[in-house]
Amino acid sequence: MKMLVDIPKCIGSGQCALIAPDVFDQDDNGIVVVLREDPQDTPELREAAAVCPAAAIEFAAG
Amino acid sequence: MSTPLTTVHETVPGYPRVRDDYVDPARVLLDLPAISPLTFAGGSVGWLVTGFHEARSVLYDPRFSAERWRGDDTVRPIPRRIRENRGLGPGSFLSMDAPEHDRYRGLLTKFFTVRRMRALEPRIAEIVESCLDDLENAGRPADLVRHFALPVPSLVICEMLGVPYEQRAGFQRASARLLRQNVTEAEFEENFSALIAFVDDTIRAKHAEPGDDLISALVASGELTDTEINGIARLLLVAGHETTMNMLSLGTFTLLRHPDQMARLREDDTLVPLAVEELLRYLSIVNAFPVRVALEDVEVGGILITAGTCVAVSVPAANRDPELVEDPARLDVGRSRSSHLAFGYGIHQCLGQHLARTELAAGYRGLLKRFPDLRLAVAPEDVPMRSDMIIYGAHELPVTW
Ligand code: HEM
Ligand code: SF4
């Protein structure tokens, strides 16, 4: 599994930082910061991607 | 297998706004196809979206405009002032599209991050405790809306914005009236102007004497005119208390009517954040919006929506779509977090969502702890529900303990 985060799409909702704080944070302007480029595939990670209002978090096989 | 369009897509004569059994979406909303024709309040025929996936695609797609003056509305015609001024004025980014919307929102996201809201937790808990004192001192029975659900978010947003709470009469009344479904042109005009004047005074005071608050920070940033700051502050003020207030009261009402769910929360208060998400989904207090206008022809769920047509998303219906969660009609405070649409979706998704989550968690937690024997002081049918308002909830909630 490979995670792809399209940062320019991010609207700073903070949902990912709330749900998967090990993987995501927000910078001073609220925009997503990826703490782990190669995170473990957890239910929280999938949930964060599913709720992202900007559809900015995706996964690719491999 | 093809069904004639006329039977599948019967025009819904008006947005079904009255709820079943106090909080459930009107049955007809749940029986409709994911997208059906709807007659809007101003008389135009557009579309009503009740399907979860279809709702998301509309709210995510920039070909659907949030500029309300372009279209029609679900439960009341667009006020003349909004049509003529092409919106609610500078800074009112809820009804703007990119890139204008993004500029304002971008200046504000930093005040509403998860981190910022975590830092506010102790202060919010303090405010909750002081309102609980007030409720207790009011004596049994007491109106939970007046003594708890309204003051908690009002105090929080006033403090955040730097609006003196002692002057709350100046905005609470105006903002409540603006959210009435049957507001007349004259009332809209009067209350809208009152709100502008009230916020103007506050901004002027911040120029003279800046404080450690959001309005002062916007003034100091030098990036916005006072008119723009006024639009932003009005939006935050209204959105910041009317919504959370209704979630606090309707959430309490609902837990009182589901003693098994209430007991689960009392037993294990770590469930509270999940309960907040579930109550947001289950209650979906945003009754008859968001509404968008197609800027070009767009296909959604197999339906061609032509340029200029309005689309209303029913959050209550979409949040009860089995495509979102299993057994959507069941309230389950331990349900794993869903992708509910209570805060919307796309670029307009609620800016204050983590503030609301923090207030709601602190509010429900505090209430359950303080009043182990909390109950309704009247029969449920005697609770005046807000079927006449843009945001659903209870006008009053008499409780005892
Ligand atoms: C439970 C409480 C709340 C609910 C259910 C709620 C719901 C919503 C929804 C559905 C939208 C999207 C509207 C659309 O797409 O047209 C929205 C936007 C917004 N909300 Fe909330 N809200 C809540 C609390 C708050 C609070 C506490 C604030 C405080 C500051 C706030 C500020 C805003 C703002 C500024 C927007 C406009 C965002 C934009 O256009 O980019 N809301 N809210
Ligand atoms: S959930 Fe999406 S929009 Fe929100 S902060 Fe994370 S990446 Fe950005």
TrEMBL record, chain A:
- Cite the 4Fe-4S ferredoxin-type domain residue spans from the record: 1-29
**Keyword list, A-Z:** 3Fe-4S, Electron transport, Iron, Iron-sulfur, Metal-binding, Transport
What's the superkingdom here? Answer: Bacteria
Requisite cofactors = [3Fe-4S] cluster
Molecular-function GO term, any one = 3 iron, 4 sulfur cluster binding
Q: InterPro entries given for it?
A: 3Fe4S_ferredoxin, 4Fe4S_Fe-S-bd, Fe-S_cluster_ET
Role: Ferredoxins are iron-sulfur proteins that transfer electrons in a wide variety of metabolic reactions.
What protein name is recorded for this chain? Ferredoxin
Organism of origin is Streptantibioticus silvisoli
The organism that produces this protein has a lineage beginning with: Bacteria, Bacillati, Actinomycetota, Actinomycetes, Kitasatosporales
TrEMBL record, chain B:
| Entry's family note | Belongs to the cytochrome P450 family.
CDD domains given in the database record: CYP105-like
For this UniProt record, give its keywords in alphabetical order, as a comma-separated list: Heme, Iron, Metal-binding, Monooxygenase, Oxidoreductase
Which InterPro entries does this UniProt record tie to the protein? Answer: Cyt_P450 (IPR001128), Cyt_P450_B (IPR002397), Cyt_P450_CS (IPR017972), Cyt_P450_sf (IPR036396)
In Swiss-Prot or TrEMBL terms, this protein is called Cytochrome P450
SUPFAM superfamilies found in the cross-reference section:
Cytochrome P450
Q: Which organism is it from?
A: Streptantibioticus silvisoli
Oxidoreductase as a keyword? yes
